[in-house]
Design a protein that fits this description.
Structural class: mainly alpha
Radius of gyration: 33 Å
Number of domains: 2
Number of strands: 0
CATH topology of the largest domain: Rna Polymerase Sigma Factor, Chain: A
Shape: elongated
Number of helices: 8
CATH architecture of the largest domain: Orthogonal Bundle
Strand content: under 5%
Oligomer: single chain
Order of helices and strands: HHHHHHHH
Length: about 190
């Protein structure tokens, strides 16, 4: 049993050459058209183009090449997009076994917010009044370093320093640890 290689033109049958020609002539314009219909969804557009060309291969006489297939291809592609759209609208939304968990996690109730504010309030008590003040003005009110500097009457460098130490102390109190990247030791020459 021998296999015909599609890449060799001499060994390919007339049907194979016609199919290759169909793809080369119509796939790119068809994909552009379908992409517009689908709002840029490349995955679905490729599926529609593939199905359109497959239907053409099954239903048309490609070898003869007497007729212009482009209008027929575009109409089939459009109908496939419409059918897919109708099918998606008619079918109920699919859910898996974890959908309830996502719904529960998506519901932010006031309990989480209250607990977070209690924990943060306790952590704030560990800060000095100067650190608390800079942290509040920067993060809570959203002021810039310059604005906090002018408001509190201290230099911008002091605002930055207090902010750095306040955040560092909060992390320590809250038990937030950062992974420390170890630097390689370079041997002396």
């Amino acid at each position: 049993m021998s296999w015909t290689v599609l890449g060799s033109v001499g060994a390919a049958s007339a049907q194979e050459r016609a199919t290759r020609s169909l793809y080369e002539q119509h796939a790119r314009p068809l994909q552009g058209y379908v992409l517009q219909l689908l709002g840029g969804d490349l995955q679905r557009a490729e599926d529609v183009v593939q199905e359109t060309l497959l239907r053409c291969w099954r239903n048309q006489q490609l070898v003869s090449g007497e007729q212009d297939l482009r209008p027929w291809l575009f109409k089939v592609a459009r109908n496939l997009v419409i059918d897919d759209y109708r099918l998606r609208r008619a079918r109920p939304k699919e859910v898996d076994g974890t959908a309830w968990l996502e719904d529960v996690l998506a519901d932010n109730d006031d309990v989480d917010r209250v607990l977070s504010s209690l924990v943060l309030g306790k952590a704030f008590q560990a800060l000095s009044p100067a650190h608390r003040e800079v942290l509040y003005e920067t993060y809570y009110t959203g002021r810039s370093t310059r604005e906090v500097s002018l408001l509190l009457g201290i230099p911008p460098g002091t605002v930055k320093s207090r902010l750095y130490h306040a955040v560092r102390k909060l992390r320590l109190v809250l038990g937030v640890t950062e992974a420390v990247e170890e630097k390689p030791v370079v041997a002396a020459k």
